[in-house]
Amino acid sequence: MTDKKINNGRRSFIKLMAVGAGVTATGIGALTPYRAEAITTNAHIVIVGAGAAGVSMANRLARETKGARITIIDRRELHTYQPGLTLVATGIWKPTKVVDSNAHYIPNKVNWIKETVTEFNPEGNEVVTDTGQRVAYDYLMVATGLELNFEAIEGMHAGLIGKHGIACVYDNPENAMNSWNVISQFTDEGGVGIFTRPPGAIKCAGAPLKIAMLTEHQLRTKGNRERAQLTYTAPATGLFSQPDVNEFLKSHLPERGFNMHWNSRLTAIDAQAKRATFQTAEGMQQVEYDFIHVVPPMRAPDALRNSMLAAQAGSFASGGWLEVNKHSLQHARFSNVFGAGDCVGTPIGKTAASVKAQVPVAVHNLLQVIQGKAADAAYNGYTSCPLVTEKGEAMLVEFDYDLKMVPSFGFINPLQRHWVPWVMKDYMLQGAYNAMLRGRV
Ligand SMILES: Cc1cc2nc3c(=O)[nH]c(=O)nc-3n(C[C@H](O)[C@H](O)[C@H](O)COP(=O)(O)OP(=O)(O)OC[C@H]3O[C@@H](n4cnc5c(N)ncnc54)[C@H](O)[C@@H]3O)c2cc1C
Q1: Which residues in the chain land under pLDDT 70?
Q2: What's the Cα-to-Cα distance from 182 to each of 81, 82, 247, 291, rounded to whole Å?
Q3: Which CATH superfamily is domain 23-146+300-382 in?
Q4: Which of 4, 187, 210, 437 is least crowded, fewest Cβ atoms below 10 Å from its Cβ?
Q5: Is 191 left (phi over 0), alpha (psi -120 to 50) or beta?
Q6: Domain extents for the chain?
Q7: Taking Cα atoms as reference points, which of 48, 45, 121, 118 lies closest to residue 308?
Q8: Which atom of ligand 1 is nearest to the CA of 116?
């Protein structure tokens, strides 16, 4: 796709959107209206985590309640637009584009405690922070996101990103930029490149694939494709949870020259020697590389994982995910607790698109419970990923708990690589995300 074609198409597309196709510029679900009238309550509602989900909850609750005391707890003052990290790590965006101040988004009406919760005590209806402050609540919204568990890979830590050929898109804007530096060097020089993916739930499961495909595209653009051997390692025998997309990717990556290594899990890395160890069906295998994209296993943050709020049994227990009803997002055992975002134990989720669909449900159901009514709104598992296949081209994949495709735009085939989802990713989704933070969509 030429830049000229993209630019012409982009102008018409943006015009089309502007006349109100109802694109929350998102491709991320239907518009969600507010309650007609705010509810009156003197409840104290505490939100833990001021990321995508927590800030969006704070805005909705501020608007949809009268008299409530709302507190949000998070030490982090800078907000990262994480979906943009993929574009930073592939040299398309500058890191400054993905960083903002949380103070722009947290409403004045909300009391912001700039501390970290170290203990959840749902039986006593309180949380404890790292300064020892005890914060009592009537209702709790858990929105802590997740934690990158680099330590699960022997020899790996975040300080290695950008050194010794190691990249990782997931950490933060600075390390996304450091990742771009090593990707840029690798695509200049060629060599052996390895892309990894851990077992278990991860946020934006499309991101490791996007990095692999954008790196391959970069090699072609520089005329260096023949100089590189690329391997994609997967912990099982699939690449993506949605079956049609999985089938597409399983033939698309080999077509682009990736060697596929199935049932393969990165267990150790020797950064100095540029050597990675994988657990495979045939036993432990060591591979020397010039470049490696490391994706660490992910889990709920310590405080949540070690608390009574975490799933105590079943498939969500090992990650310590919040034990919620997958539709109402109400805690399975503590009825005054709700959650949204990456920390919740739902079969599908862990995208900003899911946050957009979950937050209105969690907030609505909380307000119903406050009024003594049934938690009657349901999250259907909606998630979405503009699966970037190369610069200028992506697939807009949207699906639900049934793994059924639920396309927002009838005119885009979700299985077709197209410039429209690329334009959305590059130019429009950040605006939609910011509107979500403000609780407006
Ligand atoms: C590389 C990458 C690419 C992505 N691409 C896409 C995409 O294309 N489309 C898409 O929809 N989504 C994408 N995502 C996923 C999306 O960004 C996340 O799903 C979303 O940010 C989750 O929001 P959250 O509020 O649950 O977590 P976060 O936004 O991570 O926020 C969690 C907050 O909780 C705070 N916190 C944690 N523990 C505590 C504690 N104990 N006490 C107080 N505060 C705490 C943290 O400081 C943080 O501010 C991507 C993510 C990454 C990393």
Answers
A1: 1-34
A2: 22, 20, 30, 7
A3: FAD/NAD(P)-binding domain (3.50.50.60)
A4: 4
A5: left
A6: 23-146+300-382, 152-297
A7: 121
A8: 42
Q: How many CB atoms lie within 10 A of CB 167?
A: 29
Please name the residue that has the structure tokens 């069906």: 281
- Is 168 an annotated catalytic residue? no
Minimum-distance ligand 1 atom for the alpha carbon of 342: 26
Query: Annotated catalytic, 343?
Result: no
Q: Is the CB of 76 under 6 A from ligand 1?
A: yes
Structure-block tokens of residue 22: 């109802």
* 264 CA distance to ligand 1 middle (Å): 26
Distance 51 CA to ligand 1 centre (A): 6
* CATH value of 152-297 in 3.50.50.60, 3.30.9.10, 3.40.640.10, 3.40.50.300: 3.50.50.60
Cβ of residue 351 lying under 6 Å from some atom of ligand 1: yes
| Entry pTM | 0.94
DSSP 286-346: EEE-SEEE----EE--HHHHTSTTB--SSTTTTTT-B-B-TTT-BBSS-TTEEE-STTB--
pLDDT of residue 37: 87
